[in-house]
Design goal:
The complex is a heterodimer.
Chain A lengths: L1 E9 L5 E8 L3 E5 L6 H9 L6 E6 L2 E5 L4 E2 L7 E4 L11 H6 L6 H14 L15 H14 L4 E5 L7 H17 L4 E5 L2 H7 L2 E6 L2 E6 L1 H6 L4 H6 L5 E10 L2 E6 L2 E5 L6 E6 L5 E4 L9 E12 L2 E7 L5 E7 H6 L7 E6 L5 E3 L12
Parallel strand pairs in A: 3-9, 3-10, 7-8, 8-9
Antiparallel strand pairs in A: 1-2, 1-4, 4-5, 5-6, 10-11, 12-13, 12-15, 13-14, 15-21, 16-20, 17-18, 17-20, 18-19
Chain B lengths: L2 H31 L5 H13 L2 H12 L4 H10 L7 H25 L3 H9 L4 H30 L2 H7 L9 H10 L3 H28 L5
Helix pairs in contact in B: 1-5, 1-7, 1-9, 2-5, 3-8, 5-7, 5-8, 6-7, 7-10, 9-10
Classes of the chains: A alpha+beta, B mainly alpha.
């Protein structure tokens, strides 16, 4: 069930044409490179930035509907917001910070604040001021403050960007735990694809202020709707080819002279295809029956932990990158300039056609 | 020791500060927050008393408050006495020429509050007034106090504008600075010396106090 429904657009100060939805208890990642407008979208939902046209609906209520002249001020929108800088009130203790967003009389607010700080494993640190807390602790206070407001929507702006890797790993687990307790839509902003893939139920890709695609992280990664999305998601193999044939059995591509079978919605003509580096196999047996087999030459090998990234030059002049466990690379004795036979998994060759039009704004 | 003029100066400083505390706070906060096009012009206009010769400012104030001006005429018709050469006229002049001394330190203090902290106040459900009381003033108070101290100290010592607008009526418009001038004119160097020493001490204390405020409690983002 959709609880948060957003469709906004503006020209200034940055151009924006974004729409997203998020259901009850759902964790949605808003993904995009720096400067793509992620924070602007989040702050527009919260009412902190004004000037966008369109609508923001939460539950049955309208927080923003420019067509009908509805625009609730930020302090009347029941939103929990965690800022990138945490933005704790420096003159207040941790407890006072959390109390500042709670409702009711002082005793009730104190009780609620202490409860949230306890859930965030911050008991015993209630009387510390923000400067006396570590980055991870400040973030927990910020999260407790956001939740003590009893929000209808939780918005997290780059929640993991300002802490070290160890703290980040712990925060991932805590967020995963926390979301089991929450029955509200939660949107978090990140520029890290792995983060979105690990945590989010669904993700929305934002690029230059446009939301390009929404779906589960796996869906978006495997079936990007356009080359920009594929590149943003870190695909190494985004390649140009011609669609020769497209029928029920799949797609046949002419890739600079190599024939390649693929998948996806495409009609004959120029197209772009993408294949995940993890879905190009190293072929050992010469009589391997698989399709999409090509002979190439290893041009570079980069090892990162247990995985190796291999760059292969193909006879049609193109380069592709595949990843394989390091032990396989060593077991096969693969070195630079060694011959290598590779096979592209047919169902993973995703073909996209360049769209002739900009995606229009979502329905009002 | 000229107690009458000292008392008058202190009263003028207190009244001016009392008016500029709320007025300056609101103007400074608005200037710190708005990014409208006219902002530079407003800031320049508010800072004019810093560079204009006091006699020039005094001249315009005198013309503006005189019985021939709409403001002066209105005041006189309502209260039955002239605005120029009165304590009330002095207060008006004092508030105007103290605008930069009150507002500039306040504005700097409001500007030092990080944008996201202000936004946090809004998403915590605070209205603009509540945010001012709970978040902004507690963070900006050193600047607000320093603006008030500068205003008070500067009012005690202002000479040119006061002389132009108020003249030198004992108990009404004759402030310490003017009394010093009168003493010197009357060749009473000892009387002038005592009053000057008092002003020197007060000014020095005020500056030391504000410097200490600025160091002691910086806003932590």
């Amino acid at each position: 069930m959709t609880v948060l429904d957003v469709a906004i657009e503006q020209e200034r100060p940055i151009s924006l044409r974004a729409s997203l939805t998020c259901g009850r208890g759902e964790l949605l990642a808003l993904v995009g490179p720096s400067g793509s407008g992620k924070s602007t979208v989040l702050k527009t939902i919260a009412g902190l930035l004004t000037g966008a046209r369109g609508h923001v609906r939460v539950g049955g209520r309208e927080w923003l509907n420019t067509a009908r002249g509805v625009d609730l001020p930020a302090h009347e929108r029941k939103v929990g917001f965690v800022f990138q800088s945490y933005a704790l009130f420096p003159h207040m203790t941790a407890l006072q910070n959390v109390m500042s967003s709670a409702q009711g009389n002082a005793a009730a607010r104190r009780r609620l604040a202490a409860e949230w700080l306890g859930l965030m494993r911050m008991s015993g640190l209630e009387d510390r001021r923000p400067v006396q807390l570590s980055g991870g602790q400040q973030q927990r206070v910020a999260l407790a403050r956001a939740l003590a407001r009893e929000p209808e929507v939780l918005l997290l702006d780059e929640p993991f960007s300002a802490v070290d890797q160890m703290t980040r790993d712990r925060l991932y687990e805590e967020l995963a735990d926390l979301r089991k307790r929450l029955s509200i839509p939660t949107v978090f902003v990140t520029h890290s694809i792995p983060e979105a893939q690990m945590l989010a139920d669904r993700m929305v890709v934002l690029h230059r202020g446009r939301t390009l695609q929404a779906g589960t992280p796996d869906e978006v990664f495997r079936r990007p709707v356009e080359p920009d999305v594929a590149r943003l998601l870190g695909h190494k193999n985004v390649l140009e080819a011609m669609v020769v044939r497209s029928d029920r059995e799949g797609i046949l591509l002419d890739w600079k002279g190599l024939l390649l079978h693929g998948d996806g919605p495409a009609v004959p003509g120029p197209a772009t295809f993408v294949i995940p580096a993890s879905d190009i196999r190293i072929v050992v047996r010469a009589d391997d029956p698989r399709a999409n087999r090509f002979q190439g030459t290893v041009s570079a090998i980069t090892r990162l932990g247990g995985m190796a990234s291999i760059r292969v030059a193909l006879p049609n002049g193109a380069w592709i990158v595949l990843t394989a466990p390091t032990h396989i690379v060593e077991g096969r004795g693969l070195t630079e300039n060694a011959p290598i036979q590779v096979a592209f998994v047919v169902s993973s060759v995703h073909v996209m056609q360049a769209r002739s039009e900009e995606p229009g704004p979502a329905s009002p | 020791m000229d107690w009458t003029s000292l008392r008058l100066s202190i009263l003028l400083a207190l009244v001016t500060s009392a008016i500029l505390l709320p007025l300056g706070t609101l103007v400074a906060r608005a200037l710190a927050r708005t990014r409208v096009r006219g902002r530079s012009f407003v800031e320049a206009a508010l800072a004019l008393p810093l560079v204009l010769p006091p006699t020039v400012l005094g001249y315009y104030l005198l013309v503006g408050m005189g019985a021939g001006s709409p403001v002066g005429a209105l005041y006189e018709s309502v209260l039955g006495r002239p605005l120029a050469f009165s304590f009330a006229g002095l207060v008006v002049a004092s508030v105007l020429f103290n605008l930069p001394f009150a507002i500039i330190p306040m504005q700097r203090a409001f500007e030092a509050i990080p944008e996201e902290v202000l936004q946090a106040a809004r998403v915590c459900g605070m209205s603009s007034w509540r945010s001012l009381a709970r978040v902004e003033l507690p963070l900006a108070w050193p600047g607000v106090v320093s603006g008030m101290v500068m205003t008070a100290a500067h009012t005690l010592g202002e000479f040119g504008v006061v002389l132009m607008v108020g003249g030198s009526i004992p108990g009404e418009t004759k402030t310490v600075a003017i009394a010093i001038y009168d003493r010197v004119q009357a060749l009473d160097m000892q009387g002038a010396g005592v009053l000057s020493a008092v002003l020197l001490g007060v000014s020095l204390l005020a500056l030391a106090f504000t410097a200490r405020l600025g160091r002691g409690s910086r806003v932590v983002g």
